[in-house]
Structure prediction request, 43 residues.
Amino acid sequence: MFNIDLGGYYDAYIAMKERKDRTSYLNKLIENLTKRMDEDDIR
Prediction:
C-alpha cells in the first residue's frame, strides 16, 4: 500500500521475544508518563 520495505521485522520480533526485559521501551514510556502526570498534579 505505501511501498515501504519493512525489512526483517520477524527477526526483530524474535530478538525482542528473547530479551530478558522484553518490554523495556514500553516500561520506560510508562514510567516517564507517570512521572510527568505526577509533576502536573503538584502544580
Notes: The chain has a mean pLDDT of 90. The chain has one domain: 9-42.
